[in-house]
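Are you able to produce any protein sequence you like plus the matching backbone structure tokens because I've never seen that pairing?
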Amino acid sequence: MDRIDNISTGMKGFDKAIDMLKLGDNVVWQINHIQEYKKVVKYYIDQLKLNNRKIVYINFGNENLVIDELNKIKVYDLNPSIGFEKFTTTIHNIISEEGIETFYVFGNLTELQKSWYSELMTMNFFKVIFPHLNKFRCIAYFAIERNEHTYDTISELRKTTQLLLDIYEVENTLYIYPRKVLNRYSQTMFFPHKIIQDNATPITSSLDTTELVSKFKWNSRRLAYWRRTLNKAKNSLSKESSEQEEMKRLLINILVGKDLKINEMCMKYFNLSDLIEIAYREIGTGFIGGKSIGMLLATSILRKSEEYKEEFNELLEPHDSFFIGADIFYSYIVENGMWDLRIKQKTEEGYFKYSSELKYRLESGRFSDMIKEQFMHMLEYYGQSPIVVRSSSLLEDSFGNAFAGKYESVFCVNQGTPEERLEAFEKAVRTVYASTMNQDALNYRKNRGLDKKDEQMGILVQRVSGDYYGQYFFPHIAGVGNSSNLYVWNKKIDMNAGMLRLVFGLGTRAVDRVHSDYARIITLDDPMRLPLINFEDEQKFSQHDVDVLDFKNNKLTTVPINEAIKNDIKADINIFGRKDYKTQQILREMRKDPSTAPFLLNFQQLLKYSKFPEVMKKVLQVLSKEYRYPVDIEFTANFNKLNQFTLNIVQCRPLQTRGLGKTVKVPKLLDKNSCIFSSVGNFMGGNIRLPIEYIVFVDSKEYINLSHEGKYNIARQIGIINQKFKDKNVMLMGPGRWGTSTPALGVPVHFTELCNMSVMCEIAYSNEGLMPELSYGSHFFQDLVETGIFYVALFDNNKDTVFNEEKLKSYKNIAKEIIRDTNINTDVIKIYKTKDLEIYSDITTQIVTCAYDTSL
């Protein structure tokens, strides 16, 4: 029996040479072929069996086993093709479960990079697993193929393992050449050792050593496996099409992911040269993520469109984006010692418990010098052009999961010294990584059953579209577009023509509901159609402020429209709007300068005289046709003095929708008092007939009188109520905008605080400044559509709107009966249990009614 801390290799002579194996040793054998490894493993296993040791063999999905005789050995078959996180986590858990002083034989580490196409991930594997084995005082054998890995990989391996040993077989004789033996030393330890049976003889004479070593295979030029794969792909460009197609599919599997529908679209619209170009613009390795793929795929579909190819190629702005592969995310976690914390956070009990700590550590980690050097090369490419660092996770923007607004995007104005620009960029990447632990993102994944999924975070780095105008940088217009108009407020609207949500400047104002500002909503069947506002309200319900990048102060900021356009914007300003005539007249009467009147962004000339709306209609139709699904895009456009423009597709993803449903017969109202509410238009969610079991109502008069803090408390209380009503048909009704960030405009709930509602109703109280917003295309809208929540807005100044608030309030408030364990402000929040109440909507007539079922 071995002494308690000394373990035999099974080769007595070699035990003497290296002073035995010690508990906690990881032993890596560099081999030319697996048969060499099998020989040293057999010595080791035979000895362990003699000593009645607990032996575990972890096979890396290989049919050729390293151990031939498996009796008295526990075997785990794991295939690395399941992905780094799942594979590594599974082994991590096996080690924890098997406990202390277990003796392991692992497969060939080189098999990992053949599955992952990544030296980084191979390094990350042993950085995670080796210390964990050491912690449990285990001894483990690994093999790695000689000359198949870069010097960086071997260097990291040498730092991490306790023993690094070369095996050579020369003329049927086995030689072991120690390269590293931690905390042990002898005069002959680092000479080659000739192994005859269980004896080991060091080769010490210079003549014998030179003669022996000259027979060893040595490759002084070692390319990473991924780089070799790319070289192979480049070489296949000159080969037959069948070989190119095979290489195309391989690169798609490595870069894109496992969504079969997206992958087939990539096969159709990317040629091999496209994929090689994408790969050479990737920092690190791994998947580039859903947002990157969506942008690239949309651009390729438009450029190769049979019908509009020439027009789109003339209009589309070329992209020169970079992609930070998802492997960098894992490397960042491993190198900063967060892997164990990430494992704990992904458990059921640790999901929320450890998220704050993990977020903090993600925000404060460091990148390796190797990665920082690649970041710097990319920043040198962009120079001082502003860039945006955007999340591009594996699950993001896919069929079924949009993750709209759940992860961060960070603008880098990119001013200052190279060192300052690198520091700002690294901070932006860390911010995106940390956003995986945002509460909204955690809840979104949890609610959609994605909390156990492998959510890898890639990053898309894009040059910001636009130009400098004075100290400000911005595109002329930006926005979001949807190929199917699910928010129809007029029965004449053609829902299949699509819709835009348009702003001047950066598109941040188009995707978020912002204070006192309104994006312009455009129905592409009739771009001049105005949504539910009178002419005199045009200025009130328009965009007043512009999001820009401030060159002077090196930050993203918001400025009044007059400030943004005070310099020459290198385009005809009149296509975007006009001066506010009413304010000009008032200023004249007051004998003040009328030129100081605010500029009114109504986009009238753009929509009436330019080809922009027709182009956007074509773009959405082409993309929707190829996706065979409604799509949602983000875009920018820049104009010249002749009103010609270039278009940049920033993002494209499937628009999650449940469809229209069957036609619904809406009951005729005998009189206005026979319903809770009725309206023409202003709803979203198609045709429905839905029983309403409960109504959660926020009283506007009571809400208005609350303090700023009190209004936030109401939002949190709505969240508590929301949890109680899972799987119930509940209608949420309240003043102004649900989900606003400004309590004066509505109730500032997070989406996860109303996600269990079946119907959401926004009620206008125009005298109080509480107005719903047609938020079509915003992140909030995406959440509504994905969750299947029916939406209706009731405008008090609309002649077709009926709202019997007093009838609603005649119900008994049962809030305290429903919520017993929390103090709910029942003056503000009312919960009503209803009977025989239903909501009806019909997309054809555009009628929505909440009334009693008269058939009962």
